[in-house]
Every structure is written in structure tokens, then in C-alpha cells.
Design goal:
The complex is a heterodimer. By secondary structure, chain A is an alpha/beta fold. Chain A contains eleven helices and 14 strands. Chain A is 34% helix and 22% strand. A seven-stranded mixed β-sheet of chain A has the order 3-2-4-5-7-6-12, with helices on both faces. In chain A, strands 9-11-10-13-14 form a five-stranded mixed β-sheet, sandwiched between helices. The longest helix of chain A is centred in the middle third of the chain and has 15 residues, at 194-208. Chain B is α/β, with parallel strands linked by helices. The chains are: A alpha/beta, B alpha/beta.
Chain lengths: 334, 309
């Protein structure tokens, strides 16, 4: 049974901030929702309430960066780039301010619907010069992302998981690397964030069907080690499948596609994720099934790529965790 | 520190003259901004700002690339305002379209060589038309209007947090009050009590499309600033004594915003012919160019500019 960790960001951020005096904590009225309410209460001199005013917050953070501070901005990811995109560009990304953009509730991890779901943020951030992109897929990565992000000489976009988070890994994020979770020889599966857990759920069923899976988990999306990816692609016979909590345009599916095209790799690529669509409000498990972001969608993708039907169904997959939307371990507010 | 060898009145006149000469030669320019803002920038650079001596060469270096990990020698143009030492003030030119006027102010106060203005808007030059981070006297990009005050507020908060005595100044334009971010910035500066933040706003009632009242009425902006929690004084922006008095306004726990009411034809009355489109005056004919050359030169007390057609 996978270990579940309650609110791993809260303690991790506090420990990191206390060890680094130039780290500041900014929030746009989503303080408990981003698990920094305890920090606010215990360290008010390091906490800046910026209100529901993200445009000002972004440029203000740029000014703090100019003064030599390393502000960690906390809000839902979606509110940190859609409205204040101009400010993100001019005040943070262009001048390479050491602003750490901690985007909570990536993709379909929020039941808040379109306005709350960051589904194209990686596409946006990949196209911004000077930006680094990190994504957390488990509690260990959430616990290590503050130090990882804060090691970067420039702005960093982070997709953060909150609430009750599974522990899948026992080593921290090492920026620029990727995790090799299995080293099979038929199909390469590339996942990031919550889709890694989905791929792990499908692992034993696919093994039972005789498919040898090579599985990469990405916590660093930009910069990216293209040669390492190409080496893994070269190690599988049939092709590559990406599964992402994001639209399939501009995210890790595109990243893999570009890498393959640039290198002239003539293998199949199947990109799974949100297919040119918005999502709507609902539980994560429901949305993952409805939009084809879950383990079963991955199994169907493997079948499609191999042109075979394994007869696998949901009952063949490892149990899915079901979190009550309003359980105590979840941050209370959307 | 650079001693002020000229009176502030003379600096203001010099700013208008340099912008005028440049605009005649270039067949157009940001003339009205020089008319409205000359006293404000002259007062800031010649009297009020506490700045160290420039750290960058008097003749600006060419464009040397944008910030990137691959460009480790990158630096902004802030060195023309002196070093970023704790005791010194910082200045942002929030409407980067005033760059020509700001460059002229740097020249008149001995911070940049006159040759710098000849590089204005030339390909490969750092003396850009819309002031960039790397342009002389600039420290942040402000070509997108409305972000300057927020950045100033953040810098001022950070400097206060470090115990630095220096002030953070933002030169603003009145059109920026149409941007919601300006109000977000004021409320944040007030909420956090950032009283080391100062703004001088050139209230010339002009924006790109013309007179502000015809583009978007903004109402009583002084009352708005007060309501949002700033200290705010409204003065005649061509009156240096009024500027000197305005900065003495008590503003403990609040940013101070000085609304400098100005005329976009001050010192160049013939520009009234072009009202209400004064944002960038491009001469409509050689006849107009010649006529304005004669008229403005006479008003500024200099000989008409000789230029190639």
C-alpha cells in the first residue's frame, strides 16, 4: 500500500524558508489553500499578503527580486499566468528574477472547472525564454521542490500537488534529470505529475499481457536532457506514449515529439492527455477517466500502438486511490 | 555625486531643446512629453534624487544581448543613475515612451554624453526608442504601461526590509491610471505601509489616441489615490517651487504620489496645432516641419535646426 503524506508542502516550504533568509512568501488570498497558513501565522515578517491582485503581485515580486530576495509566489497555477501573463513576461521572465512560481492544483487535480484548471501552463511556460519548469509527481518531489526551484538562477514554474499526496519515490528532485522507473524494451512511456501514478497502476497488468514497458518520469520539463530521452527511445522496439495532465499540445507530448523530430527518430508516438479540449468540474478520478488521463487510457494507448487487444479492464488495474473531495486532509478552499 | 552645474530651470530648458533638435532632425519625435515632463525630470535629476556617479560609460555601449543564462555579462542601464547602493535612490521611468526625454535629462545633468542621443532608435543601439532595461537610465522594462509602480513597490518593500534608507521613485504618466494594475499597486503599497515609495505623475491629459477625456474618462485621480490609501498632492508640474514643496508632504505609512498637472505644449506653443494627437508628433509635410522648426527654436531661444531633407 502506498504511503500517503498529508500536506507535504507546508512543512517543506517552512523548513526551506527558515534556512534561507532571502526567501519570502507571497500569497494571493489562497493561503490555506496553498498550505502556507501555518507559515503566515508563525513568520508574519516573511509573509506578504498580496490580495486578489495577481498582476500587481507578479510585478511586485519582480521588484522584490531586484532587491535581492527570492519570492515564492503561492496561488493556484491557473491564476499565475492567464491574467498576469504580461507581468510574468516583463517583470519576472525577461529580467530573470529569482521568482519561484508555486502553481497549485495543476490540470484536473481541481474540481473547480475551467477557471481553476491549468491545462496549458506547460505549453505557455515552455515558450517563455529564461523559464525553468518543474512538476511534482509525489510527496518526495513536493518535499524537495522548494530547494530544487530555489537552486535556479532565474524564474521557475512549479506544478505543486497539495493535500494528501502519495509517496512514490525516495530520492529528491535533481534538476535536469529524469527518473527511470522501468527499463523495458517494447514501449517507452513518458509521464509527469499525477500521470506517473496512473502509469504505475497499469504496470502489472501490462506486464501480465507480455508488454515490456520502459517508463520515464519527468520532474524537470525545462531544461530538458534530450539525449537521455533519445537513448531511451532507442532502447524500445515499438514506440513512445506520453500521458500528461495537460493538453497534448505544447506539453510533454510536444516535448517528446519535437525531440524525436529534431533527431529524425522514425518511431511511433502516441500523445495522451487533454485532446484539444477544456475539462469541467468533477473529482480527479472521474475527470481522469472522462478525459482519458488514467491508467485505463494508457492501457488502451498501448493496445493501439501495438495493434492488439489485451482484453484488460479496470478490474485488472491496481486499485485507484479515491480521496473524498471534502476530506480533512485536503486544503479546505478552492 | 554629480554637482549640479546648471540651474534646474536651465536643465528643463536643455531637455526641451535636445528633444526638439532631435525631433526636427528625425522628422518627428516625442515632443509633447518633453513639454510636459521637462521640469519634473529636471527637478528629479538635478535636485531631488540622491544618486551616485554613473558607473557606465558616458557614450553608451551598443546593444549587448538580452538577459539569458548564456549572457553572463548582461547589465541594465541603471548605472547611468549611479550604483544601486543602500543609501541612494532608484528611479523607474514607468512610461518608457518618455525615454527620449529621460535621455535628454541624463545628458543635461552630465550623466550621459550628447552622442548618446544620436544613437536613439538606431539599429544595434542600446539607446532604444521605447526605453528597455538596457537603455541608459533604465533598470526595468516599462514599455507595457501600468507595471512600473508595482515593481517600484516591490523594490521599495524589499529595500525597507533590508533596512536601506534609499527611496524608490517612479516617474509615471496619467494614462497609466486606466490600467487596473496601477490601483492594485497603490492598494498594496498602502496595505504594506511602503512610504519609501514615491511617484511623480505627469498629468498632461494626453494619451496615444488623444485627449484622455475622449479616450477614457478617469475622473478625479487625486481623490482616487487618496481613497486607495496613498498620500497625494496635486500641483502645477511646471512650477519647480511647487515640486520642491510637494515632496515635503507628510506621508508616514503611505506612498507619496505627486500629481504634476502639465501642458503638453509648454515651451512649444505651436504644438497646439496638432492637438489632440500629440503622443508622437511626426511632421505632416516639409512645410510644417520648417514652420515648427522656426517657431519652436524661437520659443526655446536657439537657432533653427539645420537638417537634411
Amino acid at each position: 500500500m502506498v504511503e500517503m503524506v498529508n500536506r507535504p508542502y507546508a512543512a517543506a516550504f517552512e523548513a526551506h524558508a527558515l534556512a534561507n533568509p532571502d526567501v519570502l512568501c507571497l500569497s494571493a488570498d489562497l493561503t490555506s489553500s496553498c498550505e502556507i497558513d501555518g507559515f503566515r501565522d508563525r513568520h508574519p515578517d516573511r509573509f506578504l499578503s498580496m490580495g486578489m491582485a495577481e498582476q500587481n503581485m507578479m510585478s511586485f515580486a519582480g521588484g522584490l527580486g531586484l532587491a535581492g530576495f527570492r519570492p515564492f509566489i503561492h496561488t493556484f497555477g491557473v491564476f499565475m499566468y492567464r491574467r498576469p501573463y504580461d507581468q510574468l513576461m516583463a517583470s519576472v521572465a525577461y529580467p530573470r528574477r529569482k521568482v519561484r512560481l508555486m502553481g497549485f492544483l495543476p490540470g484536473i487535480t481541481t474540481p473547480g472547472g475551467m477557471t481553476h484548471q491549468a491545462i496549458e501552463d506547460i505549453a505557455v511556460m515552455r515558450s517563455i525564454p529564461n523559464m525553468t519548469i518543474l512538476e511534482t509527481g509525489d510527496a518526495t518531489e513536493v518535499e524537495s521542490i522548494c530547494a530544487a526551484a530555489d537552486s535556479i538562477d532565474g524564474p521557475v514554474w512549479c506544478r505543486i500537488l497539495r493535500g494528501s499526496v502519495p509517496r512514490l519515490f525516495d530520492t529528491p528532485i535533481r534538476v535536469g534529470e529524469m527518473r527511470v522507473l522501468s527499463e523495458g524494451s517494447d514501449i517507452l512511456i513518458v509521464t509527469a505529475g499525477i500521470t506517473t501514478e496512473e502509469a504505475l497502476r497499469a504496470r502489472s497488468a501490462l506486464a501480465g499481457a507480455g508488454v515490456s514497458i520502459r517508463h520515464l518520469h519527468l520532474h524537470t520539463i525545462k531544461p530538458f536532457d534530450t539525449q537521455a530521452l533519445l537513448d531511451h527511445i532507442g532502447s524500445v522496439r515499438h514506440g513512445v506514449i506520453t500521458l500528461e495532465n495537460h493538453v497534448t499540445e505544447g506539453g510533454i507530448g510536444s516535448l517528446v515529439a519535437e525531440t524525436m523530430a529534431d533527431a529524425g527518430v522514425g518511431k511511433r508516438l502516441l500523445r495522451l492527455g487533454l485532446k484539444d479540449t477544456y475539462a469541467h468540474g468533477g473529482s480527479r478520478a472521474y475527470l481522469a477517466r472522462y478525459y482519458g488521463l488514467d491508467a485505463l487510457a494508457l492501457v488502451r494507448g498501448v493496445e493501439q500502438l501495438l495493434g492488439q487487444d489485451f482484453g484488460l479492464t479496470e478490474t485488472d488495474l491496481d486499485a485507484v486511490r479515491v480521496d473524498a473531495v471534502h476530506s480533512l486532509v485536503k486544503a479546505e478552499a478552492l | 555625486m554629480i554637482p549640479n552645474v546648471q540651474s534646474t530651470e536651465a536643465v528643463a530648458l536643455g531637455i526641451r531643446r535636445r528633444v526638439f533638435e532631435h525631433s526636427i532632425r528625425s522628422n518627428g519625435g516625442y515632443l509633447s512629453q518633453a513639454c510636459s515632463a521637462a521640469e519634473q525630470l529636471a527637478w528629479l535629476y538635478n535636485e531631488e534624487l540622491r544618486l551616485g556617479s554613473p558607473t557606465l560609460p558616458a557614450i553608451p555601449k551598443p546593444f549587448a544581448g538580452v538577459p539569458s543564462a548564456a549572457n553572463p555579462d548582461y547589465h541594465t542601464g541603471a548605472g547611468y543613475n549611479g550604483p544601486a547602493a543602500p543609501e541612494f535612490d532608484r528611479l523607474f521611468i514607468a512610461p518608457a515612451h518618455y525615454a527620449l526625454v529621460a535621455y535628454a535629462a541624463l545628458i543635461e545633468t552630465g550623466r550621459m554624453a550628447p552622442e548618446g542621443l544620436e544613437m536613439f532608435n538606431q539599429d544595434g543601439s542600446s539607446v532604444e526608442m521605447i526605453g528597455a532595461e538596457h537603455s541608459p537610465g533604465m533598470e526595468v522594462h516599462n514599455g507595457t504601461l501600468g507595471i512600473g509602480l508595482s515593481t517600484g513597490a516591490g523594490l521599495a518593500w524589499g529595500r525597507r526590509h533590508r533596512g536601506e534608507p534609499g527611496r524608490t521613485w517612479v516617474f509615471m504618466s496619467d494614462g497609466e491610471v486606466q490600467e487596473g494594475q496601477t490601483w492594485e499597486a497603490v492598494q498594496a503599497a498602502a496595505h504594506h505601509g511602503i512610504d519609501s515609495l514615491y511617484a511623480v505623475m505627469d498629468v498632461n491629459d494626453q494619451q496615444c489616441d488623444g485627449a484622455m477625456a475622449s479616450v477614457m474618462e478617469v475622473g478625479d485621480i487625486r481623490q482616487k489615490f487618496l481613497t486607495f490609501g496613498a498620500a497625494c498632492v496635486e500641483i502645477d508640474g511646471h512650477d519647480l517651487t511647487a515640486l520642491r514643496d510637494a515632496v515635503r508632504e507628510p506621508h508616514s505609512g503611505k506612498p507619496l504620489i505627486i500629481l504634476a498637472r502639465t501642458s503638453p505644449f509648454r515651451g512649444m506653443p505651436i504644438l497646439q496645432e496638432r492637438f489632440p494627437r500629440l503622443h508622437y508628433v511626426r511632421f505632416k509635410s516639409e512645410e510644417e516641419r520648417a514652420r515648427m522648426n522656426l517657431s519652436i527654436a524661437a520659443d526655446l531661444g536657439i537657432a533653427p535646426v539645420s537638417y537634411s531633407h
